[in-house]
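Researcher: Excuse me, tokens okay?
***
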Amino acid sequence: MKLNKRWSKLTRLAGTGALSLALLLGYVLPAHGQTPVAPIISPWSVTTLNDGEKYGIFPLAWYEDGSFQQSIPADKFLTLMEGTEKKLDLLGLKKKNVSLSTPTDKVITREAVITSLYKLLANYELPAAFEMTGGNPIDYMKKKGLVKGTSTGLDLNQPSTVEQATVMASRLVEFAYDTVGGGAEGLMWKVTNGKNTMYLLGSIHMGIADMYPMQKDIREAYEESDELWVEADIINGDNDYLTQKMVYTDGTTLKDHVSAETYQKVQTLLAKLQLPANSFDAYKPFAVSLSVPTLGYVDSETDVQFAMLSGIDRYFLTKAMLDEKPINELEGIKLQADLLSGVPAEQQEKELNIILDSAMAEKGLEESAKLLKDMQTEWVEGDLNGFTQIMTTHGDFGEGEVNQRLLGERDKNMAMKLAEVLEKEGETTSFVVVGAAHFSMKGMVIDHLKAKGYHVQQLQ
């Protein structure tokens, strides 16, 4: 129990999203030797892959190995088919006793990919809603929009690229989940005032594959919205400003600003994790405090990359960019960076020591990872009570200085901004993505909006 309480601030950060943990990962990891590589993706496939890459059906490394737009080899196709089958298995549909074989030809055609995906789906005992009557696989896949072809037709005899195969598999997953009403349920509310409608989706800023695809009603709420609101635009925001606030720019390092004892703790932790001794030297205590817990959330560099790309806010920000939907900020990176960097140095070091002690305790980082996993699971299941229980038990939402900094006035101010949107003349539908704790906990944004007289209902 004592260990759980030590992690209270970390749980709050994961749930409230002050300087989204995914964003911080993007700055800390380069110090560990990672150099992001820009993926080569065709414009026609980007929207589908923004969803599909999060299903966990293919490795993100495929984007970066230089072969994404080349013919798919047999080993990659096998990996894709196995990943797709694993994702479909989660729907709980009974399987038929049919042995499926994956093409091992040197050249795998588009027809082979389409037919293989059809047979994979047909190997489940499907509800009538699938309308699968045993007809031609190509016709079925085309009718359901799972294969769309090019200006020259379906090009069935042409080799399938890795990109084309992953897109078709991604469409199949979404189609199957939507047809049976599957998908992550999330935590979402609907607020109305006159002709104005607002959807509030609680976010977790580090994602897992189980969070995708989301239930169709969540995606439709986004689609029908005129604009997206987020805490901070972590993709297009002033990231240079954040960097300046996180690091020392005067030639000094962390060692010059904390006690020898604190710095030694940092070194001990890095050695324990087999990370370079200078990994955090450039960062101020508050940035290290926010970054250390993330080291326990993932098991490999691949998991780190996936968690970064799969946060709920990042997903909808990317989607809005692709859809050219207006993006608005309730706070912005500058406000959040100032909020945390403005803490006195003595307090920053005090909080850093709490986190370091927790991380170095037996199963410290593992306990942190379990708390995040539990939060993600409750989000996937749409269990507001379960999520709130985690935050209440481990979140330590009292009236202390830290809580007021991370929550308190922030919730009041966010509610005021949302009220301004709800009071606009005319008819506007808005989609709002904010750290789930801001919506799930008592006395925060939801309660502020109710107190203002708006009609608020949780959608299930």
Observations:
- DSSP finds 22 helices and six strands in the chain.
- The chain has a mean pLDDT of 86.
